[in-house]
Design goal:
By secondary structure, the chain is mostly beta strands. Helix content is 0%, strand content 38%. Strands 1, 2, 5, 7, 8 and 10 form a 6-stranded mixed β-sheet that branches.
Length: 222
């Protein structure tokens, strides 16, 4: 009789280990010396987005690369960069070129101040620029506007800031805006305008008195 062949013991199939996706960490704030990658030649380096998506495209003639911020729903979206080394006794100003692409109810620049060294924790105060919006449907050209905060002073105790560009869409279909040439810099303090001096009341001189004529003496008859 043929000898029985040994049966191979099946080896256990190795269980695939789940791939761990690291949680993205925000870029550490840099000490103020001008914003990092403020004209987006370096792509998206240095910028963080919330409630939307960002891409780099050449959509503004003459500007080269620009950041396009898209709000994907009805809620406001924003992109921002953190800055450390704020002097609470100093003055600062920020500006940006904005060009609504579609569906923009309002877009604006904001400086948000923080007491921490890394722009985390509770927000102390904000300073905003004027807003821009999508032009009428029959507009002949794209609106490109430079907006800024003007010179502003941080609140007491500020140690860092976030330079933020926000877009609020007109509807749940979303909206997008092109962003370029962002600046954040030290500024000269605003000189308070002295109040106008009170008007000096004008005194009308009293008319001079005219002396009455003295009647001549009449000679008595002889």
């Amino acid at each position: 009789a043929a000898a029985p062949r040994p049966t191979a013991t099946p080896r256990p199939v190795p269980t695939a280990r789940p791939t761990v996706t690291p949680t993205p960490r925000p870029s550490p704030p840099h000490v103020l010396a001008g914003l990092d990658n403020a004209r987006f030649e370096g792509g998206l380096v240095g910028w963080e987005v919330s409630r939307g998506r960002i891409t780099v495209q050449e959509v503004l003639p003459g500007f080269g690369a620009a950041l396009v911020l898209t709000a994907t729903g009805a809620t406001t979206a924003w992109v921002e960069q953190r800055v450390a080394g704020i002097d609470p006794d100093g003055w600062y100003e920020a500006s940006v070129v904005l060009a609504p692409i579609a569906g923009v109810d309002a877009a604006w620049l904001r400086i948000a101040w923080y007491a921490s060294d890394d722009a985390t924790g509770a927000q102390l105060e904000t300073h905003d620029s004027p807003v821009v919006a999508s032009p009428p449907a029959n507009a002949m050209s794209q609106e490109v506007q430079l907006v800024g905060t003007g010179p502003v002073q941080p609140p007491l105790g500020a140690g860092s800031a976030r330079i933020r560009i926000l877009v609020r869409p007109t509807s749940a279909a979303g909206g997008s805006i092109a962003i370029d040439d962002i600046e954040f810099r030290r500024a000269e303090p605003l000189t308070p305008v002295p109040p106008p001096a009170p008007a000096t009341p004008q005194v009308t001189p009293a008319p001079a008195a005219t002396p009455s004529a003295t009647p001549s003496a009449t000679s008595a008859p002889v």
